[in-house]
Amino acid sequence: MAHLSGVSVDYYIRLEQGRARRPSAQVLDALARVLGLDGVEREHLHRLAHRPAHAPRRPSAARPRPELLRVLHLVTDAPAFLTDRAIGRLRHRRPGQPPPAGQPRRHR
Known about the structure:
Elements: H1 2-5, H2 9-17, H3 25-35, H4 39-48, H5 66-74, E1 80-83, E2 89-93
Antiparallel strand pairs: 1-2
Helix pairs in contact: 3-4
Domain HTH cro/C1-type: 1-42
Region (Disordered): 85-108
Pfam family, one: HTH_31
């Protein structure tokens, strides 16, 4: 959880134990994202931490560059994903998943 939300393990432990007094809205949003909370659950988390929630983020409208998509589709033996600046996932692929039609295949 700590790594995925971008906080130190020590700070995350302090949050769990209630020893971190005022976590920032950014930390709360990161935790909500990692936990997969919906808007209502996210607001509740902010209320529990005595912080007003910001307006929910809209999904990213960013589109990955074609050359990045080609690289993503060449990675066949490991999971891979592309993110936007806010660490929102734009595209992903699972190991062994074939590339979409028209994308180059990796030669071994």
